[in-house]
Amino acid sequence: MSRTILVFAERRDGQLRRVAFEALGAARRLAGEDGAVHAVLAGSGVAAEDAAALQARGADVVHIADDPSLKDYAPEAYLAALGAAMDAVRPDALLLGHTGVGRDLAPRVAAAYGAGHIADVTAIEASSGDDIGFIRPLYAGKAFERRSFAPGRPWVVTVRPNNLPPAEPADAGARGGGSAQALAYAPPPLLTAVRGVLRRASGQLDLAEADVVVSGGRGVRSAAGFEPLRALADALGGAVGASRAACDAGYCDYALQIGQTGKVVTPQLYIACGISGAIQHLAGMSQSRTIIAINKDPDAPIFGVADYGIVGDLFEVVPLLTAEVLRVRS
Ligand code: FAD
């Protein structure tokens, strides 16, 4: 079965987000051998290398909307850009990252085009014919459902970062590298405008896309107590996260909070330090590939979801881990 799939290749701070390549990988598989994959690049000052990177990983056509109105995310402007691509391509499906922008944009496009919408997809089961299962977590990851679209087009799907394999250059295969073209985009009147962005978090990796997250809880005891965790995260090339109790106590910024009312992360490796494992925290990290818990209480509930548990004082264990990682990597 061949399909035409459109991917919204999200950029952030002038760079393509990794989830754009993950959506592209899914698009390539959904499109089938004879299908077509199109990508939309929207922004102000879109780099030619971004289009080339998408083409090299299997996008047959990259549609570029480059306009000052697309500098920061504005729903009306991005909806117009994506709408222009939808009209030009008339895809069977549109794929976006399940990011702040993707979550805002996807239902708007779905409503505008009368499309079905499945959000926060963590796996895609493609069998023969039209029966494609989109797997998504429910009840903060305690259950999963398999959803599929009723007959009719188009579909709008958001994919959760860090769950689907990203498109690699080899995926372009013998397709010939694809092409890039300007999109017929007319900036609409904006109802609101971004005047400035105030950054709260440090310049660390995006938590949602980090392969390794080292998180601290109330057991870290102070802002300075996060330093050993930062050193471990740096040694592993990862990002630092936190429980709500650590944020409430003022040890770190709320931008680092993971859980039901914070960010949802699914890294390859999650290291929970001094975190008890309340259900609201598990909601944001229990789908991580491998979980290591460090806690001095052997009965802490976090050990119930951990693949590896270390019963001990985090201030002794974390520096030992960091030293060992640095030794192995040197
Ligand atoms: P605690 O539960 O106090 O645990 C601290 C742990 O540190 C203990 O297990 C202790 O044994 C261990 N410890 C102490 N010292 C050391 C040491 N030196 N070495 C090793 N271990 C040590 N929480 C979230 O995290 N994210 C959310 O999004 C979130 N949303 C919520 C939404 C609602 C509506 C509600 C009601 C609560 C929410 N919470 C959330 C709060 C949640 O219920 C817990 O209170 C919180 O997760 C506890 O954080 P903690 O594990 O860091 O602290």
Automatic annotation (TrEMBL):
Pfam families, alphabetized: ETF, ETF_alpha
Gene3D superfamilies (UniProt xref): HUPs (3.40.50.620), TPP-binding domain (3.40.50.1220)
Spans through the membrane: none
InterPro entries, alphabetized: DHS-like_NAD/FAD-binding_dom, ETF_a/b_N, ETF_a/FixB, ETF_alpha_N, ETF_asu_C, ETF_asu_C_CS, Rossmann-like_a/b/a_fold
Keywords, sorted A to Z: Electron transport, FAD, Flavoprotein, Transport
Cofactor note: Binds 1 FAD per dimer.
Limits of the Electron transfer flavoprotein alpha/beta-subunit N-terminal domain: 5-200
Gene Ontology molecular function: electron transfer activity; flavin adenine dinucleotide binding
SMART domains tied to this protein: ETF
Cofactor: FAD
Residues that hold FAD according to the record: 218, 243-244, 257-261, 274-281, 295
GO BP annotation list: fatty acid beta-oxidation using acyl-CoA dehydrogenase
Source organism, top-level taxon: Bacteria
Record PANTHER family: ELECTRON TRANSFER FLAVOPROTEIN ALPHA, ELECTRON TRANSFER FLAVOPROTEIN SUBUNIT ALPHA, MITOCHONDRIAL
Family of this protein: Belongs to the ETF alpha-subunit/FixB family.
Stated name of the protein: Electron transfer flavoprotein subunit alpha/FixB family protein
Organism expressing this protein natively: Paenibacillus nanensis
